[in-house]
Amino acid sequence: MKSISKLIHLLAIATTIILSSCSHKPLRALVVSGQNNHNWKVSHLAIKEILDNSGMFATDIALTPPAGGNMSSFDPRFDKYDVVVLDYNGDRWSETTDSAFLKYVQDGGGVIVYHAADNAFAGWEEFNKIIALGGWEGRNEKSGPYYYLQDGKPVLDHSPGHGGSHGMQREYPMHCRNANHPITKDFPDNWMHAQDEMYDRMRGPANIKELLYSGKADRNTGGSGREEPLVFTVDYGKARIFHIMLGHCGPSLADTPAMQCAGFQTLLLRGAEWSATGKVKQSLPADFPTERAVSLRKDYGKSNGVNK
Ligand code: ZN
């Protein structure tokens, strides 16, 4: 009997240890996708892979109906999530979903604006304040000024013209504008991003809170010739909004260097943690790109996620 009660006691201790070691619940992420002028069928899976492989996030997907479909069926519970990743550029949502999204953001929600999500909803004034800068879809001087850097200082340029363009895809150096923010703490000043588009001539309310990285849109490859904002947080009430213009999606997970880039994946993970919690516990990974060399995680972090 004595040995049985000892066994029960040991089992109770083991259960406590197991339960306490599981107390670090993953952060809840929702990727919104389903329509885009980009290959959303691959990009939303790449985002889910990156987030889930880190061990820090449990990611759900919310897909809208196809273009022209009945939007009343698209009614995600944004308020159940710590961070919502926008990978969507398509038909306007229903009024109910618009309101639910605004309430989530205005109540202090976490949002990631990823690549062409900043093309979406050109006519939705509040959405444009959530993204700060957008492009295409009829954006022009009425959408707000161009925002770029001159001698390291922001310029708000109200000159007329369309919003949104990019030169040829290429590898390009990323220029750090703030290494004190939790997302970019300890990041190198410059690092080489894998082949990607570089968005330029973006315009909007330009309510950027902290510009984190910029890049030079090379005129020789069709860019604006300006130093363009590429990664930043947005000043929008209590919300924590992280806008990353990088990450053009290719034809397949295997052929998408912009999203395989260890720099892109690190920014996405740190931006997601910050958007969800206001803090970043991740340290700079060993495979981070250097000033001259790109670094790819072709398995989207399966083997070297932050918790591996
Ligand atoms: Zn693109």
Description:
With 308 residues, this protein is an alpha/beta fold. The protein has one domain: Rossmann fold (3-Layer(aba) Sandwich). Helix content is 24%, strand content 24%. The protein has six helices and 13 strands. It has helices at residues 2-21, 40-53, 95-106, 125-131, 257-260, 262-277; strands spanning 27-33, 57-63, 83-86, 110-114, 146-150, 153-157, 165-166, 170-176, 190-196, 199-200, 208-216, 227-234, 240-244. The chain has a nine-stranded mixed sheet, sandwiched between helices. Strands 5-6 form a two-stranded antiparallel sheet. Strands 7-10 form a two-stranded antiparallel sheet. Strand 3, helix 3 (95-106) and strand 4 form a beta-alpha-beta unit. It starts with a helix and ends in a 31-residue tail after the last helix. The structure holds zinc ion. Residues 38, 115-116, 197, 248 line the site of zinc ion.
Task: Give a quick precis of the structure.
The chain contains six helices and 13 strands.
